[in-house]
């Protein structure tokens, strides 16, 4: 007994044992095979369902307990709970991009709820699960003995689809792990076909077919760098982001609705996290949250009245799992060892596997066809000498004697050729005599009497000729690489046509990878800012063109349900979505925003508070706005705020003007910067971009104007007050400023809706600092001047009244008149309503004039009363 005990090195023994254990876990448990994309446990469950239980898609579901029992007893000697968990995983549509198992019953939920016990649930294979084992019975893959050596199991499944990339997979082995994302089946199949057609295809070309991950749960994929990284190396990080929508309620509050969460994110845990952030006063603008989800995600988050939805959404993305990453590590078993695979490597592994499957299947079918043809060949030979064969069989003592006599039958080879039989196996010819094989003799002895009829003989000949064609085709396949690859493509495209689904996860550029302007259409917008500080942008197409003198359409809600005081539009202007906006405040500061960054609203909506957009002080309000059209240099860089030889010209209520270089504002900050020094009681009226050599016209409330050259005011820094432009008399003050354009006219409109266009030639140039000359004859009918703007004949004019009505008219419909006249009616207003603001609008394409009866009547009556 003592002789059987041997001393060993414990450290060496532990090292060897752990190495064996590690390799067992890596090869036989945790990592998927690169060929079929399955782990051994998954493979054994699918094999048991088809081979032992025949659970094809057209069969009835079977209790999962039975499936687990057969798998555990015959193929996978591990715990039933782990086998059932694997089975459930393959049936969950939020886990697998293309489920392999069709589950019936409670298979859990996306919130992480566990599936019901296996005795309650039922399952069968899906079409994709069956496709994984197509042609398994045709010796397409190697078989290996099971753990108890009582039966065989496949080493790998034939896998008619590239499952590794389609469904991905996760696993933690010893010292290594894998995390492969799912992809769209149609895209992957296209990628396989492209790789077959062009073995030298590059990653960039492949990305035209396989766009990137397409997870089981719909969400946004942000950025291309991570995708490019794992396409090339098998490792990378893919950013996933859920989707949120903002809806404004009639009460003025906003609701953020979460409609998608990133793949793998638990909705219940996400809500708990948001609730924690609210309790910890990190998210301070949320007033409530409720979950309305069923099969589709719908989580509503109610915001406080003054909350800025975009800010809250950004906070949710930053502080919760609404934005997360999927760390890609494409590690799989390839040639019996773990290997880091790029996307091209994974495609090659599948193509090579399918090539082997097609070749082995063809050899199997060839062997079957040759065996059948051999029997049919014997039938035809026997039927050609039927009487001799019947006599041999009748004269034989037993079956063995008959076999011996048939083998010894003297049958000339030439006779076989005369019968039209192609002798395939020349080894059957000995001394110009045809020698029957053992199989052929047995087939002849087993002929039935009905097969001796003439009709049956014809059927045998037809079948034999067909088999010869098939054999020829099989041999051609085995001898042609192109045929094999073409078969792989054809079978894949058939599956794609039947079972491919659209992409669920759109791939969008991440911030910093592409300019956001490239994602936003540069559409025309009307921007309005009310007296109480509510701002919005509205597509200009919502404001239809009307005839001069019409009553207009409802422009915005100007009265709060809980507020008796009427609000009105104070600033209105036309802009493009990509333009910059400079907001100048009553304290002399300036803020810079993009038009697309403003809250969007319908024509009749109130908009959002400007304090949600700009970081204004409590008593600070917007006094003037300036639109800057986006400009790019030759290299595509944005130089809008850095253009040389451009100036910003300020006009104040008291008549002062100031000129500052535009480049002085390029280093703007989110909290604003100083733009102009304002004296007490003074305020900004208008701001314009100039060339430094322009001529300027200032217009006052009492109808006076002064035209002077811009070079009379030297350029000053930002923190200066400026110089005198016009000196209003008495209680008069400046209401408008226009830059002279000889191709245009000066349009002046009064508070009672009267307006006119006057040529700039009517305004002589003067020295700045004077009292000015008449630009509009103001009287009781016209009222005082509301605004002035330079317009071109093709322009359109937007007018906004104090009760929120708006009208859009063509400038060409307004008759030109001398500067010392009153003008014509532009808009019909009710009693007590005043014209609040006017703005020049560049017309959109394909707009049609919509002139109603009231507008036409108003036009006719006002033409008659023009002065």
UniProtKB/TrEMBL annotation:
It catalyses: ATP-dependent breakage, passage and rejoining of double-stranded DNA. SMART domains: TOP4c. Pfam families: DNA_gyraseA_C, DNA_topoisoIV. Residues 841-867 are annotated as: Disordered. PROSITE patterns: TOPO_IIA. InterPro entries: GyrA/parC_rep, Gyrase/topoIV_suA_C, Topo_IIA-like_dom_sf, Topo_IIA_A/C_ab, Topo_IIA_A_a_sf, Topo_IIA_dom_A, Type_II_DNA_Topoisomerases. Residues 844-856 have a biased composition (Acidic residues). Keywords: DNA-binding, Isomerase, Topoisomerase. GO terms for molecular function: DNA topoisomerase type II (double strand cut, ATP-hydrolyzing) activity. Residues 857-867 have a biased composition (Low complexity). The active site is at 120 (o-(5'-phospho-dna)-tyrosine intermediate). Its EC number is 5.6.2.2. Residues 31-519 form the Topo IIA-type catalytic domain. Belongs to the type II topoisomerase GyrA/ParC subunit family. This is DNA topoisomerase (ATP-hydrolyzing). It comes from Rubritalea tangerina.
